[in-house]
């Protein structure tokens, strides 16, 4: 997280969205056959709109629970505070329903964030699932506890940007790896390394270096490929200027 974010006034919606975009794992709570809560660890990604994506095996207890009752809750935790206290970071508890979704968009975005999953994602018992969010509950510190409706957590995506996203991510990774590293080191204050883009949306660019996620917010929302190219070029120029 860059320094400018910590200086801004608290924004519950932005904080919750950031946790949802950055989280690589979460705790999924489902209901067993007796109606008792059952929690399990899952890896997560997001759709371009911000809905969580899960890769689940039909052999897993949580998947069998969801087949009976799709209602679920998902706890996502942001980076911890400087004190090392795990409760110092922001976290979001989402409530909603989970259902299988064979849209290629889910597979692409999940595997971009979790490339190791490519080794088993094609197994017959595995499938991708979309978490349809009903509401969210953000805890981001003392006095920063807010209930947020799904309409505020998710972002509207124009068709032009949705169609551009996959190609733009590939283009950044193949031709502009230097810019991605500068985004991370100069604009976000993160360590150097083989940073790569894993997704983008109207509000920002998601990146990953090993198991370290990062989120670069855009100065203004983008709605199409032209806006996106202009925004990424402007950010690259700023990063190069800061590095000089």
From TrEMBL:
Matches recorded under Pfam families: CREG_beta-barrel, DUF2470
CREG-like beta-barrel domain span: 11-151
Residue ranges constituting the DUF2470 domain according to the UniProt record: 166-233
Gene Ontology cellular component annotations, sorted alphabetically: cytoplasm
Stored SUPFAM superfamilies: FMN-binding split barrel
Protein name (record): Pyridoxamine 5'-phosphate oxidase family protein
């Amino acid at each position: 997280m860059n320094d400018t974010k910590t200086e801004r006034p608290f924004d519950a919606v932005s904080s919750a969205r950031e946790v949802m975009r950055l989280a690589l794992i979460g705790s999924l709570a489902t209901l067993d056959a007796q109606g008792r809560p059952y929690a399990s660890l899952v890896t997560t990604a997001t759709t371009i709109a911000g809905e969580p994506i899960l890769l689940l095996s039909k052999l897993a207890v949580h998947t069998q629970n969801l087949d009976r009752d799709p209602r679920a809750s998902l706890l996502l935790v942001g980076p911890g505070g400087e004190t090392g206290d795990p409760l110092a970071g922001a976290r979001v508890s989402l409530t909603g329903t989970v259902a299988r979704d064979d849209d290629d968009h889910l597979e692409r975005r999940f595997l971009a964030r979790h490339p190791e999953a490519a080794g088993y994602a094609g197994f017959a018992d595995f499938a991708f699932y979309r978490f349809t969010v009903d509401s969210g509950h953000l805890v981001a510190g003392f006095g920063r506890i807010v209930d947020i409706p799904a309409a505020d957590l998710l972002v509207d995506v124009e068709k032009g940007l949705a169609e551009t996203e996959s190609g733009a991510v590939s283009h950044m990774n193949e031709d502009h790896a230097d810019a991605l590293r500068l985004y991370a080191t100069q604009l976000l204050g993160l360590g150097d390394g083989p940073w790569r883009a894993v997704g983008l949306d109207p509000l920002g660019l998601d990146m990953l270096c090993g198991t370290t996620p990062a989120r670069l917010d855009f100065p203004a929302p983008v709605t199409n490929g032209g806006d996106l190219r202009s925004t990424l070029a402007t950010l690259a120029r700023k990063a190069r200027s800061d590095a000089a």
